[in-house]
Amino acid sequence: MALHGVRVVELAGLAPAPLCGMILADFGASVVRVDRTPHSAVSTDVQGRGKRSLALDLKRPLGSAALRRLSCAADVLIEPFRHGVMEKLGLGPDVLLQENPRLIYARLTGFGQTGKYANSAGHDINYLALSGVLSKMGRKDENPYAPLNLLADFAGGGVICALGIITALYERTKSGKGQIIDASMVEGVAYISSFLWKSQNLGLWNRPRGENMLDSGAPFYETYKTSDGKFMAVGAIEPQFYEQLIKGLGLDSDKLPSQLSFSDWPKMKKKFASIFAQKTQAEWCNIFDGTDACVTPVLSFDDVASHQHNKQRRSFIRNDQEEISPRPAPLLSRTPAVPSCKRDPFIGEHTEEVLLEYGFTKQEIAKLYSDKVIEIRKPKSNL
Ligand SMILES: C[C@H](CCC[C@H](C)C(=O)SCCNC(=O)CCNC(=O)[C@H](O)C(C)(C)COP(=O)(O)OP(=O)(O)OC[C@H]1O[C@@H](n2cnc3c(N)ncnc32)[C@H](O)[C@@H]1OP(=O)(O)O)[C@H]1CC[C@H]2[C@@H]3[C@H](O)C[C@@H]4C[C@H](O)CC[C@]4(C)[C@H]3C[C@H](O)[C@]12C
């Protein structure tokens, strides 16, 4: 796999950093998640695929010293705390990079390492709001609406941080040097919204929220309910595709207002909605599948893996516990990701194994254990 041989130490966090670590693990990196001790029974990391867990108390001097040793032998450290936490633990980048100048020290936060909000708590919705992107989302005459916690936490957070790490790893092959990555989710989500900024002079966003082409204003970029209570998604933007939509709906474009007549959009939406409501989702798929009308079913999580297209591409995978999840993307032709089929690690399951691998002696491990700096948890105790 592409990242085989890359050693990552991920300090356990809530949602974005775990995704970042899972991406690296899926593509072959050896990822050790450092969990807190004393731990809660269940990890908050639901994206632990392919990782190993080491339970270590960083607040104890021996614990932070152990993390320093791990960092010395690691390529990447991912830390998910607000600014200042690592410095308080004596584990700031100045310390760790001095000990291992090749270390890539990735700091994944909401607000970044500097600025007025650097020390403040926050979550996806706050970062999305501060990036300006949230102001663009939502239906007409309604409050801004955050699309789950996908944009800041994951797209602008976990994925952008992974991009930073891969870029820094590549650069290190030339310079031999590590560096610090300041991955702010506010900036990450702003960056992925560059299209919104760069397309402003096209007139795409001139109208109030919820009345533009791509923000639920247009009848041809919308979801519609079907007679069986399901939904179809319509994205027929280009005129030639719009024409196919009109045809599939059984309408005659000569008798309709022009596609871009804004004032007619509300009326056209109602018309489309009443037509979509007359057939089931499957019936609409029969009509639109194989056309360029840009109409697809809105699949539920129950249906998505068994949809023919997704089945053909094996886009969803099943682990040893029969849990279904998305296959890592993108597909690399020679060195694709090979996600682990095993269950996620229990907290402290690999403490001993990891410490041995990173050069700790059995005696040192025994001392850390008796001093309650580490926890060792055998899988059978969790069954
Ligand atoms: C699914 C839910 C998650 C929702 C995601 C949400 C929408 C997000 O947006 S996540 C993005 C959050 N933001 C960031 O990550 C940005 C950077 N981080 C921060 O800003 C902060 O970390 C923070 C604001 C997120 C949290 O602040 P906090 O004050 O708690 O922490 P920090 O200031 O960063 O300091 C950390 C302190 O911890 C110490 N530490 C760390 N590691 C160690 C260690 N190994 N040893 C010792 N000490 C350690 C560190 O030193 C700091 O100490 P000090 O403060 O003294 O300096 C999930 C959200 C909640 C989950 C549920 C919940 O957890 C309860 C259950 C738990 C159970 O186990 C599983 C089920 C739960 C119901 C669980 C389910 C889900 O996971 C959640 C709902």
What does this structure look like?
Belongs to the CoA-transferase III family. It comes from Melopsittacus undulatus. Its EC number is 5.1.99.4. This protein has 383 residues and is of the alpha/beta class. Helix content is 37%, strand content 14%. Helix 1 crosses helix 6, helix 5 packs across helix 6 and helix 6 crosses helix 7. The model has no long low-confidence stretch (mean pLDDT 96). Bound molecules: ligand L4ZMGOQ5. The site of ligand L4ZMGOQ5 has 28 residues, from helix 3.
End-to-end CA span: 32 Å
Helical percent range? 25-40%
> Regions with pLDDT < 50 over 5+ consecutive residues?
none
Strand order of the largest sheet: 6-5-4-1-2-3-12
Number of helices: 16
> CATH homologous superfamily name of the largest domain?
Crotonobetainyl-coa:carnitine coa-transferase, domain 1
The CATH architecture name of the largest domain reads: 3-Layer(aba) Sandwich
Give me the CATH fold name of the largest domain.
Answer: Rossmann fold
The small-molecule ligands in this entry are: ligand L4ZMGOQ5
Please state the average pLDDT score.
96
- Principal-axis shape equals elongated
What percent strand? 5-15%
Write down the Rg: 25 Å
What is the CATH first-level class name of the largest domain?
Alpha Beta
Let me know the largest β-sheet: 7 strands, mixed
In total, how many beta strands?
A: 12
Number of domains: 2
Helix-and-strand structural type? alpha/beta
